[in-house]
Specification:
By secondary structure, the protein is of the alpha/beta class. 39% of the residues lie in helices and 26% in strands. A 6-stranded mixed beta sheet has the order 6-7-8-3-9-10, sandwiched between helices. It binds adenosine-5'-diphosphate and magnesium ion.
Length: 246
């Protein structure tokens, strides 16, 4: 039986002024799994991520989400079909409270109509608190977003991404710039999120994702080097060579 793929790429290629950052990558992402895209700096991970999330279009090839070709869709339309991302750009309003930040994201989804009903507003409030509790910010709802520590801001970005109730959550280097302690709690959170939905995360620290991922996709010089379960990737000679000295 073939795997249930929520997302796949076909011959995905992206060039920047003649430089090929991603070359002919065809890979599938299984529904309900946690997949990590890894590779050394400059491997093309962020480029791949931006193509998967619709930040910019491919030069060639396509992204197919649940059998639907996403070519030509605008970035916000990716969210409508069920693909949400975190960390690629900051969507936090720094002067607003933590709760307001999530409420705004929820409102964007339900639309203006419901916003004016008091009951709907309270339901949004409850949902915002629920999401904030999930990401570990339940005790910080009234604080201003800019007062949060770095790791907490990233957790807030996840809550904002979750407001769209995505089928697929994309994260680019979720632990970048984090302390070891923040990193551990972010990893715990990612595992928890992955129990409920499909998660694809981009990371250059191989060790970090080996223990939590179901599948690994390795990029190198813009090409797909290997894909498989963590154990297979660990044993892969080409992957070892690429990571030597890291
Ligand atoms: P990674 O995230 O794996 O570190 P990137 O996808 O950011 O790698 O970059 C892959 C390659 O593409 C790098 O050599 C980078 O310099 C180049 N690149 C990425 N974005 C651009 C851009 N907007 N313009 C020109 N070159 C780019
Ligand atoms: Mg990157």
């Amino acid at each position: 039986m073939t795997a249930d793929l929520i997302l796949r790429t076909e011959n995905l290629t992206r060039r920047f002024a003649g430089f090929t950052a991603l070359n002919d990558v065809s890979v599938g992402f299984e529904r309900g799994k946690l997949t990590a895209i890894i590779g050394p700096n400059g491997a093309g991970k962020s480029t791949f991520f931006n193509l998967l999330s619709g930040t910019f279009p491919p030069s060639e090839g396509r992204v197919v989400f649940e059998q639907r070709d996403l070519s030509g869709l605008k970035q916000h339309e990716f969210a409508h079909v069920g693909v949400s991302k975190s960390f690629q750009i900051t969507n936090i309003f720094p002067a607003f409270s933590v709760l307001e930040n999530v409420r705004i994201a929820l409102q964007a989804r339900v639309g203006r109509l419901n916003f004016w009903s008091r009951r709907a507003a309270l339901a949004l409030d409850d949902r915002a608190r629920e999401l904030l509790a999930l990401v570990g910010l339940g005790a910080h709802t009234r604080r201003t977003a800019r007062e949060l520590a770095h790791g907490q801001q990233r957790a807030l970005e996840i809550a904002i991404a979750l407001a769209a109730d995505p089928k697929l959550l994309l994260m680019d280097e979720p632990t970048a710039g984090m302390s070891p302690e923040e990193t551990r709690s972010m990893m715990d959170l990612i595992v928890q999120l992955a129990a409920e939905r499909t998660v694809v995360l981009v990371e250059h620290k191989m060790k970090m994702v080996m223990g939590i991922s179901d599948r690994i996709v390795v990029l190198h010089h813009g090409e797909l080097l290997a894909t498989g379960k963590p154990d297979d990737i660990r044993a892969n000679d080409e992957v070892k060579r690429v990571y030597l000295g890291q």
